[in-house]
Amino acid sequence: MRRVARFVAVTSAAVAGLGIAVLPSPVGAEEVSVSTVAEGKVIAFDRTRGHCLACHEIAGGRLPGNVGPALVAIKARYPDKSKLRALIYDARIINPNTIMPPFGRNNLLVDEEIDKVVEFVLSL
């Protein structure tokens, strides 16, 4: 718990120091703030919320699972953000036999949290 609290504090301080910094985005695409990506990472790594590391290997994560695929080159795998969001919201729509929890359908994460996790995952 202390590591998570320290990570949140360090991440929050780093994001605050960046002001209104944004990640580079293609022409015509919406800009995503660094804080949104950082918040998505916190949610994805949090054992009480997203806990994506339970099943996926993610850069920077400790003790990853190997049930799901490694989360790398996500923009290449999911160029359509809405499809990635739908997968996180309820993967059973795409694959009825999946063991991935339906984060949105079962209210494990609210819509805003899912959006932040999507932005984080797209940054990988």
Distance between the termini: 25 Å
Largest sheet: none
**Global shape:** globular
Written as H for each helix and E for each strand, in order along the chain, the element string is HHHHH
Q: Can you tell me the residue ranges where pLDDT is under 50 for at least 5 consecutive residues?
A: 1-29
Global structural class: mainly alpha
Please state roughly what percent of the residues sit in beta strands, choosing from under 5%, 5-15%, 15-25%, 25-35%, 35-45% or over 45%: under 5%
User: What helical percentage do the residues reach?
Assistant: 40-55%
The residue-averaged pLDDT reads 81
Q: With helices defined by DSSP (H or I, 4 residues minimum), what is the helix count? A: 5
Query: How many β-strand runs?
Result: 0
Radius of gyration over C-alpha positions, nearest whole angstrom: 14 Å
Question: Could you describe the 3D structure shown?
Answer:
The longest helix is centred in the first third of the chain and has 17 residues, at 2-18. The two termini are 25 Å apart. The chain has five helices and no strands. Helices cover 44% and strands 0% of the residues. The radius of gyration is 14 Å and the shape is globular. The chain is mainly α. Residues 1-29 have low confidence and may be disordered. It has helices at 2-18, 34-45, 74-77, 81-89, 111-122.
